[in-house]
Amino acid sequence: MNPPCGRCKKPVYPTEKINCLDKYWHKGCFSCEVCKMALSMTNYKGFDKKPYCSMHYPKTSFTIVTDTPENLRLKQQSMLNSQALYKEDFEKSKGKGFSVVVDTPEMQRVKKTQDQISNIKYHEEFEKSKIRSDAPPPENRQDYEEQPPNPERFRQPAGQVHPAAVAPPSGAKRYQAMYSYTAAEADEVSLLEGDVILDVEPIDEGWVFGCNQRTGQRGMLPANYVRPV
């Protein structure tokens, strides 16, 4: 009795019989399962007892091994072990928050250094905020004495009498210098921050007359450089 063909299921006679992949085939039926290209015993590739050409041969995946019952059991056991370890670590870390890493000696030193830097910056900003918004320009401060004063800044027009030439009446007030000032004229008084000024009297807009207690020099000085004490 002639066996059936592996593809068309019709009887296969001995003259056209191909015995391959545990089946019998007609020569015309022995072709690729995908593209139907005719195959021979030298160029076919078998998969699941079916012939394929090299182009359409199924690519084996790694899940064929891992899906075996034994590997599935091992995979499930590994997942259970991972969950058990996770719960154990979670229970140990309760009450510690997220300080497991930052509590190391090195991280504690870094944190302390950062806190010190933050405190220094805070004090610097606080000192800067104490500077008066109406402070005089820096060219007349003690820190900027290397800059030459501008004599034209306080010079009176020609032909006018300087109002500081006449001393004010007695009974004047005591003032203290808030900033350093370098005299630009002969009738002006130089100041250092903290100098006490005696007999201060206003004589013009922005100017007063007084005596520097430290140097004994009498003359004019800018009103916004001193304050009453």
From TrEMBL:
<dbReference type="Pfam" id="PF00880">
    <property type="entry name" value="Nebulin"/>
</dbReference>
<dbReference type="GO" id="GO:0005925">
    <property type="term" value="C:focal adhesion"/>
</dbReference>
<keyword id="KW-0007">Acetylation</keyword>
<keyword id="KW-0479">Metal-binding</keyword>
<keyword id="KW-0677">Repeat</keyword>
<keyword id="KW-0813">Transport</keyword>
<keyword id="KW-0009">Actin-binding</keyword>
<feature type="compositionally biased region" description="Basic and acidic residues">
    <location>
        <begin position="123"/>
        <end position="133"/>
    </location>
</feature>
<keyword id="KW-0406">Ion transport</keyword>
<dbReference type="GO" id="GO:0005856">
    <property type="term" value="C:cytoskeleton"/>
</dbReference>
<keyword id="KW-0862">Zinc</keyword>
<keyword id="KW-0206">Cytoskeleton</keyword>
<protein>
    <recommendedName>
        <fullName>LIM and SH3 domain protein 1</fullName>
    </recommendedName>
</protein>
<keyword id="KW-0440">LIM domain</keyword>
<feature type="domain" description="SH3">
    <location>
        <begin position="170"/>
        <end position="229"/>
    </location>
</feature>
<keyword id="KW-0728">SH3 domain</keyword>
<dbReference type="Pfam" id="PF14604">
    <property type="entry name" value="SH3_9"/>
</dbReference>
<keyword id="KW-0963">Cytoplasm</keyword>
<comment type="function">
    <text>Plays an important role in the regulation of dynamic actin-based, cytoskeletal activities. Agonist-dependent changes in LASP1 phosphorylation may also serve to regulate actin-associated ion transport activities, not only in the parietal cell but also in certain other F-actin-rich secretory epithelial cell types.</text>
</comment>
<dbReference type="GO" id="GO:0005938">
    <property type="term" value="C:cell cortex"/>
</dbReference>
<dbReference type="GO" id="GO:0006811">
    <property type="term" value="P:monoatomic ion transport"/>
</dbReference>
<dbReference type="GO" id="GO:0046872">
    <property type="term" value="F:metal ion binding"/>
</dbReference>
<dbReference type="GO" id="GO:0051015">
    <property type="term" value="F:actin filament binding"/>
</dbReference>
<feature type="domain" description="LIM zinc-binding">
    <location>
        <begin position="3"/>
        <end position="63"/>
    </location>
</feature>
<dbReference type="Pfam" id="PF00412">
    <property type="entry name" value="LIM"/>
</dbReference>
<dbReference type="InterPro" id="IPR051759">
    <property type="entry name" value="LIM-SH3_domain_protein"/>
</dbReference>
<feature type="region of interest" description="Disordered">
    <location>
        <begin position="123"/>
        <end position="169"/>
    </location>
</feature>
<keyword id="KW-0597">Phosphoprotein</keyword>
<dbReference type="InterPro" id="IPR000900">
    <property type="entry name" value="Nebulin_repeat"/>
</dbReference>
<dbReference type="InterPro" id="IPR001452">
    <property type="entry name" value="SH3_domain"/>
</dbReference>
<dbReference type="InterPro" id="IPR036028">
    <property type="entry name" value="SH3-like_dom_sf"/>
</dbReference>
<dbReference type="InterPro" id="IPR001781">
    <property type="entry name" value="Znf_LIM"/>
</dbReference>
